[in-house]
Amino acid sequence: xxxxxxxxxxxxxxxxxxxxxxxxxxxxxxxxxxxxxxxxxxxxxxxxxxxxxxxxxxxxxxxxxxxxxxxxxxxxxxxxxxxxxxxxxxxxxxxxxxxxxxxxxxxxxxxxxxxxxxxxxxxxxxxxxxxxxxxxxxxxxxxxxx
Length: 146
Description:
The protein is α+β, with helices and mostly antiparallel strands. It has 6 helices and 8 strands; from the N terminus they run ββαββααββαββαα. It starts with a strand and ends with a helix.
């Protein structure tokens, strides 16, 4: 399971060095092939390829004409590209999503159970301030025993 947050940097060529704790788990369970994309353009999602293929299988069950399926597919394909870990454990973040999500310099790499989510550090701090965890959120989650 991928959990927690590690700081990382995007180099001048757009490569993200995946934190060792995450890379070790991903390679052991899924291998080195990834799908790097975004749904909103605000952050980068890095899916191990087997996880992404599972998501595509679920998506294939949704009628092709469903508007939400079309929008989701358009977004992830616009921003997405397959990638692999290089020898130094880096993954190339495609220029289109790198620009949209402002993937330069210091970034935060979050474990999201079966994939990684990467945020520009400042953008994520702004998001936390703009959309904080509330008592209503805690109450909603308590219904699930959390």
